[in-house]
């Protein structure tokens, strides 16, 4: 009867196929259904086992999504053996819905929601692993593009494309699997409504009891509400971000030295070449971790002695960076602006303002030529104006023709020699103020350059054999101990490059301030490591270090364990005050 009815309707519609065509289309479908029924009838045990397997996998997938922690250290079996409150509530709501369509819609939405929840938790895990903080829904999406660019520089374009495609496919499969799993479990629960209702009441009672009594197994509570935790955490982050935006804009507009006349800014450094140099990922762990420290502290001691023989002296302390594991620009801007820049929104706000940076101070006086040596910059950098840099040399303007060392576009030794050739070694009518950002100690710390004779640097092609003989990032990245050792080598190389440059080209009028921008990633710095970084001021003129004699810093290039620790955003005002600047507040 159904076939006859459809055939008659088709025959009456001149815009559709004929009745005979409709019968021809229906036949294969009926044949397929018949074959499926035959297979089921012929192998009932296998079909039953397959159904049970699919049901078990669906339940496991949904529970895993509900219970997945958002911190790397918490991803273990104990956290997946808990009773999620959301599962109990979800089943209760499903059983209460009146019709099949509403239940299907709920199952689909549940699957999509679980997919989104899983992605957020995985992003939290990734950000905690590399940046020591959770993922911010408002601010951090653009960092995913930076991560892809980093992977391209590290692993190559083909591997990056393959990884990107793999991630997209994996996400689509994740969402599809969770939707199908939710649909399957929904159908099962409805077919066994009585048992499901009893089970839900029992599970709800157990959850309330475990939660009330605080019952735990191996230190992990049996009652779980991970979805509520994730939603609450992300909501708080979003609210805090939105509140912080307005508050920080007001803070950035108030500047203790913003209205200081040019003549009253850093009068005690007039005539000096002042160089503010950042060493990538140079953190406290480099001086204290037992696997890393011997090479780094040995280098610092050796280079302190060499500088002293050349007439230079140094004092060193600790600063607490606003960032950790990455996002170097947050550390740079915190140090130079005197403001705590710990997220991308703050960075955008301050760089769009006229807040006075430490580097812009020298430009404002009119007594210095201000330059930037930024080999890590490979695209437009409008922030140069905010930092007060009249002349910027990025990756494409330093004359380098050698190979890249993973993410780093050129070895630090070459970048410093290029600075000497292009700026420091040339005659100018003013002293120099330079911001120099060294990149050889950027992760993945493979391959690492080695020092060559300064006279042989040329256009950098001398590094081709060194880069080819270096370690493969694919072998270093998965190995935590090897990453730590290679990280230590890279820091020793960067410090050696910088201090040899100073020894070779510095004079009575050279003042070098150098520091780390942040600690390396937790896999290298260790779980719960501080955010402290070393900072040193080096000069040949004794009057320069006399100005900071009351800071309590250690002599030499290595701060002591008990050397004072300051927040990085306090350095600007301390430095300006030490070298004779007079505060005149702007913005009030």
Work out the helix count: 22
Strand percentage: 5-15%
By helix and strand content, what is the structural category? alpha/beta
What is the CATH top level name of the largest domain? Alpha Beta
- The CATH superfamily of the largest domain is Alkaline Phosphatase, subunit A
The name of the CATH architecture of the largest domain is: 3-Layer(aba) Sandwich
Radius of gyration: 32 Å
Main beta-sheet strand count, sense and barrel state: 9 strands, mixed
- Approximate shape: elongated
The proportion of residues forming helix, as a percent range, comes to 40-55%
Biased composition (Acidic residues): 14-26
Organism: Streptomyces flavalbus
Keywords: Membrane, Transmembrane, Transmembrane helix
Region (Disordered): 1-31
In short:
The chain has 22 helices and 13 strands. The protein is an alpha/beta fold and 588 residues long.
Structure, explained:
The chain crosses the membrane at residues 49-68, 80-97, 104-123, 162-183. Keywords: Membrane, Transmembrane, Transmembrane helix. Residues 1-31 are annotated as: Disordered. The protein is an alpha/beta fold and 588 residues long. It has 3 domains: 1-42, no CATH class; 43-237, no CATH class; 256-532 and 545-578, Alkaline Phosphatase, subunit A, CATH 3.40.720.10. 54% of the residues lie in helices and 10% in strands. It has helices spanning 2-12, 19-42, 44-67, 85-96, 100-131, 141-155, 157-191, 193-213, 226-252, 285-288, 293-309, 328-337, 344-351, 358-365, 383-386, 412-424, 464-468, 473-476, 480-505, 522-525, 542-546, 571-578, and strands at 83-84, 216-217, 220-221, 223-224, 273-279, 313-320, 369-373, 391-393, 432-438, 510-516, 532-539, 554-555, 565-567. Strands 5, 6, 7, 8, 9, 10, 11, 12 and 13 form a 9-stranded mixed sheet that branches. A two-stranded parallel sheet has the order 1-4. Strand 7, helix 15 (383-386) and strand 8 (391-393) form a beta-alpha-beta unit. Helix 1 runs antiparallel to helix 2 (19-42) and helix 6 packs across helix 7 (157-191). The longest helix is centred in the first third of the chain and has 35 residues, at 157-191. The chain starts with a helix and ends in a 10-residue tail after the last helix. The model is unreliable at 1-25 (pLDDT under 50).
């Amino acid at each position: 009867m159904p076939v006859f009815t459809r055939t008659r309707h088709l025959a009456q519609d001149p815009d559709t196929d004929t009745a005979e065509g409709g019968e021809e289309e229906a036949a294969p479908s009926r044949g397929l259904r018949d074959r499926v029924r035959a297979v089921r009838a012929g192998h009932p045990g296998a079909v039953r086992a397959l159904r049970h397997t699919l049901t078990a996998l669906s339940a496991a997938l949904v529970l895993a999504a509900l219970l997945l922690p958002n911190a790397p250290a918490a991803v273990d079996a104990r956290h997946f053996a808990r009773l999620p409150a959301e599962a109990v509530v979800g089943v209760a709501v499903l059983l209460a819905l009146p019709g099949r369509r509403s239940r299907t819609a709920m199952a689909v939405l549940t699957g999509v929601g679980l997919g989104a929840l899983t992605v957020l938790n995985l992003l939290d895990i990734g950000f905690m692993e590399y940046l020591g903080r959770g993922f911010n829904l408002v601010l951090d999406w653009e960092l995913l593009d930076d991560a892809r660019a980093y992977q391209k520089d590290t692993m190559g374009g083909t591997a990056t494309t393959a990884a990107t495609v793999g991630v997209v496919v994996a996400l689509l499969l994740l969402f599809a699997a969770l939707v199908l799993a939710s649909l399957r479990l929904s159908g099962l629960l409805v077919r066994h409504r009585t048992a499901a209702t009893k089970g839900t009441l029992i599970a709800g009672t157990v959850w309330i009891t475990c939660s009330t009594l605080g019952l735990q197994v191996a230190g992990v509570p049996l009652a779980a509400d991970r979805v509520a935790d994730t939603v609450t955490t992300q909501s708080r982050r979003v609210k805090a971000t939105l509140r912080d935006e307005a508050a920080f804009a007001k803070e950035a507009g108030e500047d203790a030295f913003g209205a200081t006349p040019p003549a009253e800014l850093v009068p005690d450094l007039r005539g000096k070449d002042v160089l503010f140099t950042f060493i990538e990922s140079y953190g406290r762990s480099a001086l204290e971790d037992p696997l890393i420290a011997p090479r780094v502290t040995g280098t610092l001691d050796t280079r302190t002695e060499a500088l002293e023989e050349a007439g230079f002296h140094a004092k060193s302390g600790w600063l607490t960076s606003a960032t950790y594991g990455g996002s170097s620009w947050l550390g740079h801007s915190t140090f130079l602006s005197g403001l705590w820049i710990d997220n991308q929104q703050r960075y955008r706000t301050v760089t769009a303002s006229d807040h006075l940076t430490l580097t812009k101070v020298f430009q404002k006086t009119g007594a210095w030529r201000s330059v930037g040596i930024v080999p890590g910059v490979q695209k437009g950098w409008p922030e140069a104006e905010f930092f007060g840099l009249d002349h910027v040399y990025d990756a494409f303007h330093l004359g380098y023709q050698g190979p890249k060392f993973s993410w780093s576009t050129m070895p630090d030794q070459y970048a410093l020699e290029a600075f000497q050739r292009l700026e420091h070694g040339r005659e100018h009518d003013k002293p120099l103020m330079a911001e120099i950002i060294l990149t050889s100690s950027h992760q993945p710390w493979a391959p690492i350059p080695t020092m060559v004779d300064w006279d042989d640097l040329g256009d950098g092609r001398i590094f081709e054999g060194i880069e080819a003989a270096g370690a493969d990032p694919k072998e270093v990245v998965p190995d935590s101990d090897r990453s730590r050792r290679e990280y230590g080598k890279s820091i020793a190389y960067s410090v050696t490059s910088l201090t040899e440059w100073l020894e070779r080209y510095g004079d009575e009028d050279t003042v070098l301030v150098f520091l780390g921008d942040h600690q390396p990633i937790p896999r290298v710095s260790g779980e719960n490591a501080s955010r402290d970084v070393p900072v040193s001021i080096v000069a040949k003129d004794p009057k320069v270090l006399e100005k900071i004699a009351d800071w309590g810093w250690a002599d030499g290039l290595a701060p002591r364990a008990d050397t004072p620790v300051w927040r990085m955003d306090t350095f600007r005002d301390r430095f300006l005050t030490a070298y004779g600047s007079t505060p005149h507040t702007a913005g009030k």
